[in-house]
Amino acid sequence: MIVLDAGVIIALLSPGDVHHENAKNFFAVERGPFSMHALTAAETLAGPAKRGQDAALWSHLQNLGVQVTTIGPTEPLLLARLRAEHGLKMPDTCVLATATHIGAPLATLDDRLGGVAATLGLRHPLPDAP
Predict the structure, then answer these.
(1) Alpha helices in the chain (DSSP H)
(2) 128 falls in which pLDDT band (50, 70, 90)?
(3) Is the pLDDT of residue 129 over 80?
(4) Does domain 2-119 have CATH number 3.40.50.1010?
(5) What residue spans define the domains of the chain?
(6) Strand order in the sheet with 2-4
(7) pTM (2 d.p.)
(8) Which of 49, 57, 84, 97 has its CA 20 to 30 A from that of 43?
């Protein structure tokens, strides 16, 4: 299981994105399963929802092996503690909480989130673009 940050999916779907090739290489190598926090999945689907394409993208993500991880009733405590300790914005804290909760590596293109994940031993490296 690998936890995905929204930026990895957004880069994959955006050929003009500076990280597009990195994201393509990641999914060429990694076959899943993948996990996302519900907020992260919603963040990924927001742009496509404006164009009426959210359901199609959600189906595509599920075909890639993406699952939404539920943390449970102690999630507010975990989110509060991680945010207080690391000072991340809440969307990034949700990604980190998912990785922490299930003990899985986190794939992100965000340097700050990636740095925190690395200090916790949870960073999954993305391959460089060719």
Answers:
(1) 6-13, 20-29, 38-50, 54-64, 75-86, 90-102, 111-119
(2) confident
(3) no
(4) yes
(5) 2-119
(6) 66-68, 34-36, 2-4, 106-107
(7) 0.93
(8) 84
